[in-house]
User: Which sequence fits this backbone?
């Protein structure tokens, strides 16, 4: 091991947020890990962690030490990884909290590359940090805007602009004569992933400003939403990347651009900063 074991112990506890999780992650007994950290603190003459019943947080001195050691570890890992890149990996692990343009493009690229397997899972945005830090994921793709990471462990790339559209049965649209009237008078049917998009907040704001109180239905299965829209039960606003335009036209569904409210929605690709050299090559491959 190029870096001191004790340094790796410190970095692991800082990133896992608890001694127990860190000990399991680096396969060391809990007492041995606690002693290792205590030895570092005794040597330095100050505490690195604030201990509590729910875990640990870095002290101010601990944060400074972490930021000092992080680029050193990054350089070491980049040297160790040398030429191999994620493109030669047998498996890529991707998490997302909603279906979006970046995720759709990633799927199509992976399908083209028959030498790489893809494992994808749905997670809440709040879970992405621990999943990336633990190595369970290589990437997390979301339309959720970045949250500051004080330890600067996770970085991201803005991938592309997302587009939301309204889908409405032609009969329901003709009954109301305009998109505005449809939104005022009919049920709103949403995919659960849409509720995680910034456009959802804008839609709620629009409904509140215009005193719209029609029923809102949220479903996890996109097929249910398409079915209800086809039958004229209500309308939906949905990410354009999900839609099969030819199919919707064939079953009498109109696709209407969102002109009712502004929605600056982008997809973001999150990954570990210390793996930036390795993963950015794959991100560039997606573009």
Assistant:
């Amino acid at each position: 091991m190029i870096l001191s074991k004790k340094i790796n112990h410190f970095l692991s506890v800082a990133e896992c947020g608890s001694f127990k999780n860190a000990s399991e992650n680096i396969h060391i007994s809990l007492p041995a890990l606690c002693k290792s950290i205590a030895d570092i603190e005794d040597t330095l003459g100050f505490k690195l962690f604030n201990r509590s019943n729910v875990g640990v947080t870095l002290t101010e001195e601990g944060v400074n030490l972490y930021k000092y050691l992080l680029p050193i570890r990054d350089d070491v890992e980049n040297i160790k990884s040398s030429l191999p890149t994620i493109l030669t990996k047998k498996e890529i692990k991707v998490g997302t909290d909603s279906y979006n343009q970046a995720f759709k493009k990633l799927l199509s690229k992976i399908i083209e590359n028959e030498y790489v397997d893809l494992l994808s899972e749905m997670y809440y945005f709040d879970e992405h940090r621990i999943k990336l830090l633990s190595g369970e994921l290589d990437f997390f793709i979301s339309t959720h805007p970045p949250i500051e990471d004080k330890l600067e462990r996770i970085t991201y790339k803005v991938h592309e602009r997302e587009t939301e559209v309204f889908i409405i049965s032609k009969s329901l649209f003709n009954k109301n004569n305009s998109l505005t009237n449809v939104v005022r008078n009919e049920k709103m049917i949403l995919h659960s992933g849409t509720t995680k998009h910034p456009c959802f907040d804008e839609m709620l704001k629009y409904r509140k400003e215009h005193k719209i109180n029609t029923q809102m239905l949220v479903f996890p299965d996109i097929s249910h939403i398409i079915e209800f829209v086809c039958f004229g039960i209500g309308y939906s606003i949905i990410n354009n990347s999900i839609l099969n335009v030819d199919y919707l036209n064939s079953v009498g569904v109109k696709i209407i651009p969102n002109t009712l409210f502004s929605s600056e929605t982008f997809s973001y690709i999150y990954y570990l900063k210390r793996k930036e050299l390795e993963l950015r090559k794959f991100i560039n491959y997606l573009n």
